[in-house]
Amino acid sequence: MYCAIDFGTSNSAVAVPDSTAGMRLVELEPGYTTMPTAVFYFVEGPEHDGPPRAFGRAAVAAYVDGLDGRLMRSMKSILGSSLVEQTTDVGGGRGVRYLDIVAGYLRHLKRCAEAARGAPVERVVLGRPVFFVDDEPARDAQAQAALERAARAVGFRDVHFQYEPIAAAFDYERGVEREQRVLVADIGGGTSDFSLVRVGPARAVRLERKDDILANHGVHVAGTDFDRRIELAAILPAFGYGAFGPSVAGAPAREVPSAVYFDLATWHLINTVYSPQRVAELRNMRGFYADTRQHDRLMTVLTERLGHELAARAEAAKIAVAEGGTTRIDLSHVERGLAVELDEAQALDALEADVARIVGAAQETARQAGVAPEAIDALYFTGGSTGLRVLAQRIAAAFPAAQVVRGDRFASVATGLGVFAQRWYGRA
Predict the structure, then answer these.
(1) What pLDDT shows up at residue 239?
(2) Which domain holds residue 247?
(3) Quick check: 94 and 156 in contact, CB under 8 A?
(4) Which pLDDT does position 211 carry in this prediction?
(5) What is the dihedral of CA 203, 205, 206, 207, to 10 degrees?
């Protein structure tokens, strides 16, 4: 028995062998074959294979319902960082290593695969980004090694990796009738990955496809970075980000220290702002603010632990303006009547630097392959962040002769990983 797992920054999916369809996606939750990459640790409850917890939509629902505990998201982003071996407080006097959080989530996906197949599953193809960490090969190798350790710790004895954009190319290839050069743009929550691949009916039957991969390249910039930019640009100014303090004795006003705001806008660092020492330090900074209402709002966020809720509202606002328009971000849970507006122009201004880096990575992929932009036959978009209209448009403009094809934003990689897993483990 084997399976394929797309362990994504924002969403995950699993494919298993099927006697009629070859490979099929597993229903991870009722009615859903993709699941948010999220874990909620409950403060209270019996332990079973670790602290009491919920996964996916149930984890998000527990958080939204205000249950006592801690929500973990974007766990993939800690791979390759020093955090992976550190222990974090998950409530109820419990501490859990970040790597064990990843392993616990993988164990849940493994059990879903086993329930679907009715048998133990010990072999897996895991997707991985082109780069877990930009421009640092040693840390990138450490990230893959950490993910492999987590997979083996939950019972996978045979672990094989495949690049996520290559997997997406395998999914695209199933509908191709002639040989093509396709540039796969896999833009998810944590990374923007590009692969230039030769595909076609004659090539699809080959197991070894190394010479069909003309180039792959990527940057560690994607959806969670967009959310962070939106939160800093649209939400956190109401809490003092970018504000100035009072002028003292005619001296120029000084900007409010910004470290707390950067941490509030970064999922895996939000919990650090709630420590008693840091809360006390920030409480004593009231005199740094010319508008003390901003400081009051910040302290409400810290004392009531609303940082993850602010991040979630930034993500929702990004989605709301992704295809144009304006949205109102309700912040009345912090202060009655508080709200801010976000329109597409503001969002684009906040995201410009990130969008430019991603488009540059796409162009660099073609350059590394030695292929002129006009010689690329198709652009295949997958990953949740390709729903951002301006991003897809900017990438397409760099390759004007290419046909634009959109895959399943949340399942193309898992489907392609399944195709590869069947070829890899089905050889016998």
Answers:
(1) 98
(2) 224-343
(3) no
(4) 84
(5) 130
Residue 48 is assigned to a structural domain of this protein: no
Furthest CA-CA distance within the chain: 81
**Confidence grade of residue 48 (pLDDT, cut at 50, 70, 90):** confident
Tell me which DSSP letter residue 134 carries. Answer: T
Q: Is 422 within the bounds of a domain?
A: no
Query: Is residue 318's pLDDT more than 60?
Result: yes
* Rounded-to-integer distance, Cα 329 and Cα 141, Å: 40
pTM: 0.81
Query: Domain total for the chain?
Result: 1
Residue 175: its pLDDT value, please? 82
pLDDT-derived band at 47, boundaries 50, 70, 90: confident
| Integer angstrom CA distances of residue 203 from 164, 177, 210, 214 | 19, 11, 11, 14
- Reported as half-sphere exposure (CB side, CA atoms, 13 A), residue 378 has a value of 23
The band of 38, judged by pLDDT with boundaries at 50, 70 and 90, is very high
Residue of 400, 357, 412, 4 lying closest to 188 (CA atoms): 412
- Give 261-323 as a DSSP string: HHHHTSGGGGGGGGSHHHHHHHHTTGGG-SSHHHHHHHHHHHHTT-HHHHHHHHHHHHHHHTT
Q: Is 86 domain-assigned?
A: no
**What DSSP state is assigned to residue 178?**
S
Residue 57 lies in a domain: no
Buried b (16+ CB within 10 A) or exposed e, 360-380: ebbbebbeebebeeeebbbbb
Amino acid at 242: G
pLDDT-derived band of residue 427, with 50, 70 and 90 as boundaries?
low
